[in-house]
Every structure is written in C-alpha cells, then in structure tokens.
Amino acid sequence: MSLVKSENLTKTYRMGDETVRALDGVSLRIDPGEFVAILGPSGSGKSTLMHILGFMDSPSAGRLRFEGGEVSQIGRARRSWYRANRIGFVFQAFNLLPRLSVTDNVLLPVVYGRSGIRDRKSLARVALERVGMTHRARHLPNQLSGGERQRAAIARALVNSPALVLADEPTGNLDSQNVDRIMALFGELAAEGHTIVVVTHDEHVAGFARRRIRMHDGRITEDSSMDV
Questions:
Q1: Which domains does the chain have, with CATH numbers?
Q2: Nearest-angstrom CA–CA distance, 88 and 198
Q3: Half-sphere exposure of residue 206, counting CA atoms within 13 Å on the CB side?
Q4: pLDDT digit string, tens, across residues 171-203
C-alpha cells in the first residue's frame, strides 16, 4: 500500500481579479521508505504541494490519500493529530524556540501530540543519538552552529517516529559542507526505512534523493528514479 497517493490535485487562489493555479492536476504516489526530492523554481508549486501533503493546506479539487485513508474525510482535530504524530517537519529556518534547550525543542511534538508518555526524555535521547547531537542536548539554539541547529530540527521531526518526514528547503541556510552532511543524513534515514520528501530548488540537493520529481507551473514535468 502506498503511503501517499494524490489524484489530480488542484489548488487555486484569488489575487485581485485573477485566479492563480498553484497546482494544476498533480497525481503522484509515494511508497513507504522512499527518498524523494521535489524540485523546481519559485512559483512552481512545490511548496504548495508539500503543504497539502503535510495537512497544512487543502486542495481546491482532487483527491489525497494518506496511509490508505481519504484526507478530505478527516476533521480538523484529526488533521492536527496527524501533523503531530504521523508527519515530521523540517524547515529552512530551523524553527527552534530560542529559550528552550535542544532536548525541550526536540520534545515539542511529544508535548503537543502524545499523552501518557512517562519517559519523554528517553524519546529525545534516542532521536538526538540518531543525528549525532546528544552532546548538545542541554544547549540553547543560539549556542549551536547552523548544521547543528538543523540536526536538532531533524531529531524533532523524528521523535514521534512519523510515517513521513517533509523537509522544506532544509539546506537553504547552510554552507556547502553542512549541506552534504544533512543530505547524507537524510539518505541514511531513508535507508533505515523512513520516508523522506525534500522540497528544494537546488539540483545538488536533489541529487542525493533516489527519486526526483520536477515541477513547473503547478504541474509535474519529470518523475524519475536515480542511482545515487
């Protein structure tokens, strides 16, 4: 069974007297364990697609299934639950809360998404071990390098063992050395069975993925697997 399956997704916006079609009939399938890069310039629709896949927005038309269920039939509260428990998010700006330690930042999805967890610290420790950040567990975000901040953000995305990790331009604020480290980490996570979808405009970043989906003007123009 596919993890994500969309059929003819369309997303339109009103801008004054004009209708902007951000997505124009997008159909795709993502299976468990895939490492996918969605590639395209600004305005291509890639971020809109990611927001819909992550339950942060709804399509104007078309169908989306997640883990076999029809997303249009899921209510607002249940969508929030999915975002907290079944989907992990990694952003370009890291989105770490500056007054919280790395451990407490990693635990935010647990605080908002799960109840009855007795040993939350152990969840954070496991996630931080996975990204090589246990030695920074007590530090604040402003005490970390850019690459360390992104690794902490990836640990936060992994803490609830989500079915899908969505990364929106995750290397945009990093130098070239850390770009390669972060993308290699995503590759390792995919090899372990995590489903990773990276949205990027960068050909180099997309080259780390096993599958590349290229978008232009709201449509998929290329969908190919690569040997990497």
A1: 4-225 (3.40.50.300)
A2: 12
A3: 21
A4: 988 999 999 999 999 999 999 999 999 999 999
